[in-house]
Amino acid sequence: MAEELTPENPEAVLEDAADAAGEEPVKQRKNGLYPGVSDELAENMQSGWADTELHDLEPIAQAAETAARRAALSARFPGERLVIPAGNLKTRSNDTEYPFRASVEYAYLTGNQTEDGVLVLEPEGEGHTATIYLLPRSDRENGEFWLSGQGELWVGRRHSLTEAGKLYGIPASDVRELAGALREATGPVRVVRGYDAGIDAALTDKVTAERDEELRVFLSEARLVKDEFEIGELQKAVDSTVRGFEDVVKVLDKAEATSERYIEGTFFLRARVEGNDVGYGSICAAGPHACTLHWVRNDGPVRSGDLLLLDAGVETHTYYTADVTRTLPVNGTYSELQKKIYDAVYDAQEAGIAAVKPGAKYRDFHDAAQRVLAERLVEWGLVEGPVERVLELGLQRRWTLHGTGHMLGMDVHDCAAARVESYVDGTLEPGMVLTVEPGLYFQADDLTVPEEYRGIGVRIEDDILVTADGNRNLSAGLPRRSDEVEQWMAALQG
C-alpha cells in the first residue's frame, strides 16, 4: 500500500497512482530542492490543461515504402512472431542520457524513431498483422508528465497512440503491456537482439541465437538495394554534406588560429541545421593526423602547408547518411609532392568508380583501385615489383591500409550483417549505393619511405549509386581533381 503523502515524501503521490495503474512508480531525484508535493499542488496539476490531440495528421513520407518492407519481411518468415525493438535510452552520466537513435532495423520498417518502441508482426492467415508498441502520452493523473525526468514537461510531448497510428500506418498500442504479453505468447518467435533488455528477457526461453541471427541477416540484406525514397534521402544527405565542406573551406583561417575542433564544429553546425546529426564522428585530420584512419579526437593544429583530410557526412532526419572525404591543402595549393600523391589516389578512385556497374563483382572496384596504387608505389621505388607480385602478396597494404569502400545507407557501414556471398562476394545491382575511397598513408615514423613522404595522408571518397547503365556519383558536387580543388577553394575564400 502506498504511503500517505507528506511534505517529506514527494514520491507518494506518484506511487499511489502507479499502484492503481499497475505501473512502476516515477523515480525522483535524490537531492531535489523541493521537499514534497502538497495535496493542493498535486490536484492543481491534474486539471486545467487544453486538449492538444492532433487530428489532421498525414502519414509520413515513406509510409508506402515501410509497408512494402514489412510485407517482404512477412513473406520471408510466415507463421512466426517477429519482434523488432527500437532500443532504450542509455545513460551518459548520472541522470543525463545520450541522444537517442533508434535501431536501424526498427526505423527501416516503421519510420518511427522514438525510444522504447517495438514493432511486432503477429502471424495471421497467410501473412502477419503489424502493431507498433510505443509509450503513450505522459500521464497527467499520476503526475508523471511534470515530475518524471522523462515526462513531457521535461523532454517534450510524445505522440498519442492514435496519432502514431495515423503517422506510421500501423495500429499502435501501449508498450508497457508488451513484455508481459510476450512472456505468455506461444509459437515460434524471432527477435532482433541487443537493443531492448526487457524485451530480450521476456523472450529468453522462446528464441534461439541461430533463428534470431537469420532475422538480423535478412533485414541487413534487405537494405542492399535502395528504393527511390532511400536514394532521394541519400542525395539530400550528400547535398548537405557538400555545403558542409564549403563551410569548412571558408573558415580554414579560423581553424589555423585554433585547432581541428573548429573544423569539426563548423561541419556539425551544417549537419544539425539541415539534418538530424552527423552520420558518424567527423574525421578532421590535419598534417600527420591524416595517416590515422579514424582520427576523431580532432584536437590537433591546422598548419599552412599541411593537408587536411576531412571525412564527414550529414545524416538526414530519416537516418540516411552521406560519407564523403576530400584531402585539401590548408593554404589552398598542393605542393609538388602532395600533388603527386593526391593525383595517384585520384587516378585509383577513377579506376574504382569506372568498375562500379550492374553485373560487376562487388570486389571489382577495390581491385581496380588497388592495382593503380600498387603501380604508383612500384614506379616511385617504394616497393619492389612487379605489380602482380605486390598485389598477390598484398605489399601495397602498408600504405593503402583499408578496403576501397563499403555499402552506404542508414548506417555509414550499412548492411554489415549480410552474408559474405551477398555482400563482398556478391554482384552489383541497380539501386545499390557504395563508397569508393582509396587512400595512401605514409606514417610519420615510416623509415621505409623518403623523409619528405612521411606524415602525408590522402583519401578521396565519393558516394556512388549503381544505375541500370553504370553509376552516378551522388557527391559529384564536390570537385575531386587537384587543380579543380585548388580553384574551388580559391573561389570560396574570395
TrEMBL record:
Acidic residues: bias regions: 13-22
Tree of life domain: Bacteria
SUPFAM superfamilies given in the database record: Creatinase/aminopeptidase, Creatinase/prolidase N-terminal domain
Reaction(s) catalysed (UniProt annotation): Release of any N-terminal amino acid, including proline, that is linked to proline, even from a dipeptide or tripeptide
Family to which the UniProt record says this protein belongs: Belongs to the peptidase M24B family.
Name of the top EC class for this enzyme: hydrolase
Protein EC: 3.4.11.9
Organism of derivation: Streptomyces hyderabadensis
Record keywords: Aminopeptidase, Hydrolase, Manganese, Metal-binding, Protease
Alphabetized GO MF terms: aminopeptidase activity
Alphabetical list of SMART domains matching this protein: AMP_N
Protein name in UniProt: Xaa-Pro aminopeptidase
